[in-house]
């Protein structure tokens, strides 16, 4: 259709009255399940979006916030969610959680949520969206905020991954290491949305130190401790293994430490290891890392949402500082002791 799709269009194609179509899209329990599904399917096909003004006239704001997260089992996402939920709860807002882990989940979410308009705001937790997905969200006419990442020009709370990576790699350089490996972690479910700031930091730090980047010293794996262990095994298989390793996260770094110890190597006597995050296990295992305020990112995003829904301004993007935390897994190269 060239003109704007209306509720009457949806009702006509579904064979129901506009009032029934409105109740079906609102999830009214007195509408038959088959009718609800038919109305919603047609609304999806027409890309019909419930008018925010009409929704307010019908009953004001929903008092609900959609939270989109790619993973639930990982500590990082749990900490983000904990900080966000606490602030939203205190503001009297309910959370609708959407796990969008793979391509099918993404397609389902972006196809179905806008037509239903069940929320006042959407918060993306470390969940990068492409231009088509961003446009689909904006069709809803609701607030969009990101925590742990950035979503186009919308308000966000994050860290500077390049700065965090530089803190880690520069630490190794300052200790005197010249052969520094990187275990680069990627998420296969996020398609072309891989954040590359931590990898860029590695290249920049080495270039500034006059150290050539050797592709063989970069092991690319998926996120996780087991994957970090696998990446470290690859680096140990080189004719000249690195004397220090920079891992994209603490979990990946801890996997690398496991491989080194099983190989009979000392950390940091033979190989230094550093990660990013300051995972709760980092202090317990004496892992050097770069601390990021994960829970605070979620909380700040929650305050942005609460502010804008109460008539204020969410503000612009915010980058929270990171901090180098030196523990027992890093030291000078073995021949410098």
From TrEMBL:
<keyword id="KW-0238">DNA-binding</keyword>
<dbReference type="InterPro" id="IPR010982">
    <property type="entry name" value="Lambda_DNA-bd_dom_sf"/>
</dbReference>
<keyword id="KW-0804">Transcription</keyword>
<protein>
    <submittedName>
        <fullName>LacI family DNA-binding transcriptional regulator</fullName>
    </submittedName>
</protein>
<dbReference type="Pfam" id="PF13377">
    <property type="entry name" value="Peripla_BP_3"/>
</dbReference>
<dbReference type="GO" id="GO:0003677">
    <property type="term" value="F:DNA binding"/>
</dbReference>
<feature type="domain" description="HTH lacI-type">
    <location>
        <begin position="5"/>
        <end position="59"/>
    </location>
</feature>
<dbReference type="InterPro" id="IPR028082">
    <property type="entry name" value="Peripla_BP_I"/>
</dbReference>
<dbReference type="Pfam" id="PF00356">
    <property type="entry name" value="LacI"/>
</dbReference>
<dbReference type="InterPro" id="IPR046335">
    <property type="entry name" value="LacI/GalR-like_sensor"/>
</dbReference>
<dbReference type="InterPro" id="IPR000843">
    <property type="entry name" value="HTH_LacI"/>
</dbReference>
<keyword id="KW-0805">Transcription regulation</keyword>
